[in-house]
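question for whoever is on the cluster today: can someone run the full assembly for these? two chains, 736 residues total. i dont have access anymore since they changed the login thing
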Amino acid sequence: MLTISRDGSSRRKILLSSVLFMGLAHLLFLKQYIKGAVFALTEIVVLALSPMIVRAIAGIITLGAPKPDLPIFERDNSMFMLIDGITVLTVVFIFFLLYYISIKSALFAYKEFCLFGTFSDNRKILSEIGSKAFPIAGLSPAVLLILFLVLVPLIFSAGVAFTNYSSPANIPPNNTVDWVGLDNFKAMFGGNEAWTGALGRVAAWTLVWAAAATFTCYAGGMFMAVIMHDTKMKIAPVYRSFFILPYAVPAVVSMLVWQNMLNGSFGTVNRTLIALGWMTKDTVIPWLSDATLAKFVCVLINLWAGFPYFMLLTMGSMTAISKETYEAARIDGASRFQIFRSITLPSVLYQTMPLIIMSFTHNINNFGAIFFLTGGNPVVADSVTTSAKGTDILVTWIYNLTINLQKYNYAAVLAVCIFVVLAPFAIFNFRRTRSFKEGEL
Amino acid sequence: MAEIKIESRKTLSYDNAVQKLKRRLFKTFIILFLSLVSLLVLYPLIYAVSAAFSPGRSISATSIVPFGNGVTTEHFVRLFSETNYLLWFRNTLLIAVGTSVSTVFVCSLAAYVFSRFRFVFKKTMMLALLVLQIFPSFIGMIAIYVILLRIKGLDSLWGMVLIYLAGNIPYNTWLVKSYIDSIPRAFDEAARIDGASHARTFFSVILPQASPIITFLSIVSFTGPWMEFIFSKLILRSNENQTLALGLFSFVTDKKNEYTLFCAGALIVAIPFVIFFVITQKILVTSLAGAGVKE
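^ ran it for u. tokens below:
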């Protein structure tokens, strides 16, 4: 019974036994005792823990029952149940991946047996394990950290979008949270006038902001780089050192300085303009307190802070264009503008394309530029209910919803929106990478 | 014949003069323009420096001419005597060093494996890294809060290191992997043939070869935590665990209006950063371009 034939007819036997119990085929037929024992042990551990796994999965389905008569710390905590459930599901998912790998490994070993007629002996397997140990050990810290501190939180966030986790009635540990299906999405997308209006306004401004911020910084940075490159003056490095200062100063600092300087009544800018006689105390410019003007100011100040990065970037990629190309163009009588349009621009654009897209996604998430400059202000009509103010973008709104209003469910809906908007960009960037194109992966 | 020659020389020198004049005009124009931009760039920074040294507390007390109200160092004295500035600085430094060291270790190892080994689900994992890196990690902040609560990492510096490390693994791994891809495989194959183990090949062949991107990564992950705000605010509650960003921000919130104190504190952090960036601008140019060119 425990023998297998070389002609491939025992494939079913191998497949069945390896599906039946992890590592069974290795132990019974393939004489790979170490590998088989490790696989079998994994399954035994998981089986031993199965009551806990089942409880966690049941918890994620019910999210706990309200038990108002118990003291607070003995009541069901829905959020703990949700996160435990997701963590356990992740572990179960990894277990099934291992199961899949074990079946593959058994079939592969059988194929080798059919070809050579002998089992690879355990010593060879040991050395094989040795060479596999390094990649596994090297990858596992990164993979584990990502799984449990990046992926689990993201899934949790997405999950919260389908619950009523919000102040005042559903905040654990006092109360439990329940699944509500698509209710939050319905409220955000048309069900509730104030929230829908705020979402439309904030989403539109986020997109405009990201596009404008990326474009201005890129164009400004490239312009400065080309000018610095063209002049070849001895003094150029001095200017360059000035220009990278905004990049060097941490954004929190520079944005808070700007916020104070642009303050309507006692900011340095307006006081200077008054002293110059260009306006009076009653006609000061409301830099950050007029919703429309504040948006322009955000983009402008972001240009101040962001152009150095793209300047450095363009300078770097311009060094990759050969001097001969420029020389040839000049001999052919091309003007500065022609050289820029037909040589510098296409080459730099081509090289920096992925970074432009990355910068766009970065700006959609650019919390610091908005939060420290305007704090989302000024207040507009629906700000009291929704906590979305005039210059708030999606991420700063999420922050307000979480910290101030404790409307975690709506914050989660916004997070899902960001995912839907951004994922295509990431995949697009991935498809452009060299390793993807060359089919290395 | 002779006449024509003279004539052409004349026009030539005339042309030259025009060209020269044009070039000089252009140069002056460029210098004027660059000076104007420099002025705009330096404008808020000069005022911030001047505020750090000027008497008074809020911005309304500062002069509209830089250093116009005289110079005082009282804010720096107050920073060290009345506030916990040194403690904040120490905490932030610890977090930054921890993040930098652990990031370089975890990400470069993972990048090496991704670059040189073949294994199941490799493509899926790479794509997952790329999709995950677009999310700011604070989207999952409630979950991270609960997880840290579970592993007793709330209000602790190592909890912060863990978050900063994990949140940036996707992007950083991808960055280093692209660079290692460009190192010829001949190097590590030679080492392997000479009998070096994978670990040894990694530490003594790959890491030195990848030193530009490793330097870049350690700098970026060191500077990042200095001014991170959201997670510090969420996780660090007790007074002895505050960071610089939290402390400085608390100077300019609505309750307090200590703009000059804020500027003094910010100046102390910003100066090393600025010196560092100005010195390393050449490396930055090549590393940034490298990040773009490689893919």
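summary bc i know u wont read the tokens: The first helix of chain B runs from residue 2 to 53. Chain B has a mean pLDDT of 85.
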